[in-house]
Design goal:
Blueprint (H helix, E strand, L loop, with lengths): L1 H5 L4 H8 L3 H11 L24 H17 L7 H8 L5 H4 L3 H10 L21 H4 L5 E11 L5 E9 L5 E6 L4 H15 L4 E4 L3 H4 L10 H8 L3 E4 L9 H15 L7 H18 L1 H6 L21 E7 L5 E4 L2 E4 L8 E7 L4 E6 L10 E6 L14
Parallel strand pairs: 1-4, 4-5, 5-6
Antiparallel strand pairs: 1-2, 2-3, 6-9, 7-8, 9-10, 10-11
Helix pairs in contact: 2-3, 4-5, 5-7, 12-13
């Protein structure tokens, strides 16, 4: 740049040619002066000030003495930088009185007088840590959720059933006029028929997935489908963060990249745009999907019998109450009076007629001791298959 200036080019012309600002050209021109270019020091200079003003050693010693006195004699017991500054406000030494709280804090840090508590950062638990087979990468977990509160022009509302696999990142989204258990079942059958069956399917505690909350021993149509396909349904804890993070993250991306990005005249346009987005997601995650745990194929021509008595295992992730109990299937079960307000994994084994409750701790995700075994037998009764509206 300096050579170009000396050849007669204008400063603005040089700035445009080298794609820098005008002040940069002027800075290096002043830096070079009238010297030969091979004798100019072109190295970046330190931004550190040439002169620093450090508090006198006697003043620092006085600050430390005040801190020790406050630590021993103060009625409040406070001996931090703010407390020292308040005490120094009445000091005779004007230099000490002029110290700010920030300067006092730097003195304490420089002299090693801070009662610092270093935060212990523990590594996060592995994905799906609450299910040992999923955490070891031996089984896949598909999470499903519903996006609500969307409306087209004219006020016509619709909902979106979404899905996301934990290891493979296999996305799915179905915009529907409304999401019901009757609508979810054929979509899951078609989806799993195309991509294969996972080991686990995770849901929140919505009645669409879990069943009616006001009735005891209520097993929904969706749960019956999972059990009939030997897929273990998993229900996330109530009002707990983190367990549904994968599907909630996908919900946010779908709304930002599909719903909010384009105008949609009708529901069919939303479905078309959503299908394109999901295909693009599959193409981008192809390597991850290929490396995910294997899926079982769905037998061709398989038909779902909703009246078949459920067999298999349902997993409920719950937090114990103040009495050490958990609530699931409309019932309360005692677990452990010493395990209060803590996470547990309750495995409802309908085949064996028992509930196995394991303790869960994020700090030690591999340690999941068995807390208790409870007897539970699901009553045999006909599923009330109401006709569609």
């Amino acid at each position: 740049m300096v050579a170009a200036l000396r050849r007669g080019e204008s400063q603005r012309g040089v700035a445009r040619r080298f794609h820098v600002s005008l002040c940069q050209v002027q800075y290096w021109s002043r830096r070079a002066g009238g010297r030969r270019l091979d004798r100019v020091d072109w190295e970046d200079r330190s931004r550190r000030p040439r002169q620093t003003r450090r508090t006198a050693g006697a003043v620092e010693d006085h600050v430390l003495a005040v801190r020790r006195w406050l630590q021993r004699e103060s009625a409040l017991g406070e001996h931090g930088a703010a407390a020292i500054a308040r005490e120094l406000a009445t000091a005779r030494d004007l230099r000490a009185r002029a110290l700010s709280v920030r300067t006092i804090g730097r003195i304490l840090e420089r002299r090693g007088a801070l009662d610092r508590r270093v935060r212990v950062r523990r590594p996060p638990p592995p994905a799906g840590w609450y299910l040992p087979a999923v955490a070891r990468g031996e089984a896949e977990l598909d999470s499903f959720d519903v996006i609500e509160g969307l409306a087209l022009a004219g006020g016509r509302r619709f909902e979106v059933l979404t899905g996301m696999s934990l290891h493979g990142g296999l996305a799915a989204a179905w915009p529907l006029p409304w999401v019901s258990a009757r609508a979810v079942v054929p979509l899951l059958v078609r989806h799993w028929g195309a991509v294969g069956l996972p080991g686990y399917a995770q849901f929140d505690n919505d009645t669409i997935f879990q069943g009616a909350h006001q009735h005891q021993d209520s097993i929904s149509r969706v749960v019956r489908l999972c059990l009939a396909l030997a897929v273990v349904p998993v229900f996330a804890p109530v009002q707990e963060t983190g367990f549904q993070a994968a599907i909630e993250s996908f919900n946010g991306r779908w709304q930002a990249k599909v719903w909010e990005r384009f105008p949609h005249a009708n529901l069919r346009a939303v479905q078309h745009r959503s299908a394109s987005y999901v295909r693009a997601q599959h193409e981008r995650a192809a390597a991850r999907i290929e490396a995910a745990p294997p899926r079982r194929p769905l037998a061709p021509g398989w038909e779902f019998d909703v009246q078949q008595h459920p067999q298999g295992t349902i997993v409920f992730l719950r937090r114990t109450t103040a009495a050490g109990a958990i609530e699931l299937l409309g019932r309360r079960f005692p677990v452990d009076r010493h395990w209060l307000h803590r996470l547990v994994r309750a495995e409802v084994d309908l085949t064996a007629g028992e509930i196995r409750v394991h303790a869960l701790r994020r700090r030690e995700p591999a340690d999941q001791p068995l807390l208790c075994r409870l007897t539970y037998v699901l009553p045999t009764r006909r599923f009330k298959d109401r006709p569609p509206p």
